[in-house]
Amino acid sequence: MINQVVQDEVPVAGDLPRVRGRAIVVTSGKGGVGKTTTTANLGTALAALGASVVLVDADVGLRNLDIVLGLEARVRHHVLDVLEGLVTLDDALVTDKRVPKLRLLAAAQTREKDDVDTVAFRDLIGTLRDRFDYVLIDCPAGIEKGFVNAIAGADEAIVVCTPEVAAVRDADRVVGLLGDDRKVELIVNRLRPALVRKGKMLSVEDVNDILHLPLLGVIADAPDVIVSTNRGQPVALDPASEVGESYRAIARRITGQDRAAPEVPREKTFFGKLFGGRS
Amino acid sequence: MIEFLNRLFGREPSSQTAKERLKLVLLSDHLSLAPDVIEALKRDLFEVISRYVEIDAANCDVTFEQREKQVAMMANIPILGMQKRPVPPAPPASHTNGSPKPPRKASANGNGTPRRRRRKPPQQQTMPQPQLAQVSPQPT
Asked: Within its chain, how far is the Cα of A75 from the centroid?
């Protein structure tokens, strides 16, 4: 199933001469909107397209990217070990065997965000950009030191926002803090099309009426995501999953292979509901 | 069914309420101004304009709109006619003789209605009024 995804897609960048990779921070301000899930799935989808990708967990003290990816058992060293010179970068990078072009640099679980030096972290991202096509940084919630560290080395940002007032307000704050020098794009996460139709949820247009960001993609609120997180199998690897396809479409948009406007998920039909279930 | 009834009785969908609440709170966030300060700003704005022209206070409307990078303020202030004797602009600091102090409050009578008549200031006739010539009354 996994190989199928890899083979079906056209590889990009793999055979081209090495240009500096792109460092993209995935951020939101508010917690619990799906930053880590987004980072894991976009990284997986980009690597499945043939790009070399490293995922950096900047959430020191509350690391989760490893467990969402299903790589928690293989993490031996973390980003602070590298920054403090205890191990080499290669010792700390975990290769995802399902998508061999994907690497993870985990955060330290027993340390604090204040232990990370902003300049050193920025320089580490710079080093990774020389080696990988994409450096995706999973930013912690909040706008304090962890956020400052996470965005320091990134020249692009993906703001993840759910259609909720608190998430939009915080996203707006974060967009202001990201400044004018970064390319900033929006992913609307956990959209429920049926609720939008009934006027019970903000629509993608409502959200972007306020944030005014280029729309990178829209992810539906689907049980697939919960199930795949339970299993530690990113949903982007499931060729049958619609949400997985949404992530793959975003990955193609990031690489520039897909230039069409993002699709907004629609309500499931009766038969879709009947046969689309997964457990 | 409940939706239908809500629509029938004109109850706004909650997404619309969410949107309006967000717009208001973000305006406060962006301007770093509390909502009551924004209200005071509007009041003062009407008061200044009504020193020169007679405005339709009941139909004045000031809105704020989030643009790409900044907030824009838009005022829609219907003009009923010219004030008979517009108050001249406040004199420069060096020029201290005899101009009346502008009133501090938007409305002395407390209901938002601007004052219509002002005492003629002594230097009225010697002051140039090029700005006033450009304001044309709105046909109502």
From this structure: 19
The number of distinct structural domains making up chain B is: 1
Question: Which of A138 and B63 is assigned the larger pLDDT?
Answer: A138
Asked whether A174 and A32 are in contact (CB, 8 A), the reply is: no
ipTM > 0.85 (yes/no)? no
Nearest to A200 among B13, B19, B23 (CB): B13
Interface of A with B in 141-200 (CB under 8 A): 164-165, 168-169, 172-173, 180, 196, 198-200
Contacts of A199 in chain B (CB under 8 A): 3, 13-16
**Which structural domains are found in chain A, ordered by start?**
22-275 (3.40.50.300)
Q: What is the pLDDT of residues A184-238, one digit of tens each?
A: 999 999 999 999 999 999 999 999 999 999 999 999 999 999 999 999 999 999 9
Full domain range(s) for residue B63: 2-82
User: A203 or B123: which carries more pLDDT confidence?
Assistant: A203
Identify any residues that bridge with A183 across adjacent strands, giving them in sequence order: A156
Q: What is the largest CA-CA distance in chain A?
A: 57
Residues 6+ apart with CB under 8 A from B105: B47
- How far, in Å, CA of A144 to CA of A114, rounded? 9
Instruction: Tell whether B47 is covered by a domain.
Output: yes
Q: Is residue B55 part of a domain?
A: yes
Average pLDDT over residues A127-143: 97
